[in-house]
């Protein structure tokens, strides 16, 4: 669990919403939407504690979304933690691996990519696996900061597959849903 719970404020369609997500009961966990996080978002979330990931951290902590991965995506996370260019001290690696495994559920037995709907090809073949995971597990969102992935958002969204968003955009979309729910309740 994350120790930081964020009150997130955002103005969407002229309405300012400030909210701290509330926990969902355990029985509803199967109904909790899945979310796929690419490696850069995981670095921002777990290592850098980037403020743009505060709403994501709060949503994960409160059980509003379930972050998921599979073996290829998890292996990339583990590999990146060893890169000399990533500012991780050797004594931090075990903690980062443990935190990832605590927060991000590793799925097994997913359908093979070639048995699912066709996906657009990402320019960076290393990023294709994140789209394949989002499609295979039925996640409505893939959070990424990678421009090659982000450029494919319009195509995956238009095809009704999933959205590829940066963390701040995902937060705004989440809060827009809260605005719509508040307006519907007021009517």
Secondary-structure blueprint:
Blueprint: E1 8-12, E2 15-19, E3 34-37, H1 39-48, H2 54-62, E4 66-69, H3 71-80, H4 90-103, E5 105-106, H5 128-137, E6 141-143, H6 147-150, H7 153-158, E7 163-165, H8 167-186
Parallel strand pairs: 3-4, 3-6, 4-5, 6-7
Antiparallel strand pairs: 1-2
Number of domains: 1
* Spatial arrangement of strands, main beta sheet: 5-4-3-6-7
- Secondary-structure arrangement, i.e. CATH architecture: 3-Layer(aba) Sandwich
CATH class: Alpha Beta
CATH superfamily (homologous) name: 5'-nuclease
Q: Which blocks of ≥5 consecutive residues have pLDDT under 50?
A: 1-29
What does this protein structure show overall?
- This protein has 187 residues and is α/β, with parallel strands linked by helices.
- It has a single domain, classed as Rossmann fold.
- Helices cover 44% and strands 14% of the residues.
- It is built from eight helices and seven strands, in the order E-E-E-H-H-E-H-H-E-H-E-H-H-E-H.
- The strands form two sheets. Strands 5-4-3-6-7 form a five-stranded parallel sheet, with helices on both faces.
- A hairpin with a 2-residue loop joins strand 1 (8-12) and strand 2 (15-19).
- The model is unreliable at 1-29 (pLDDT under 50).
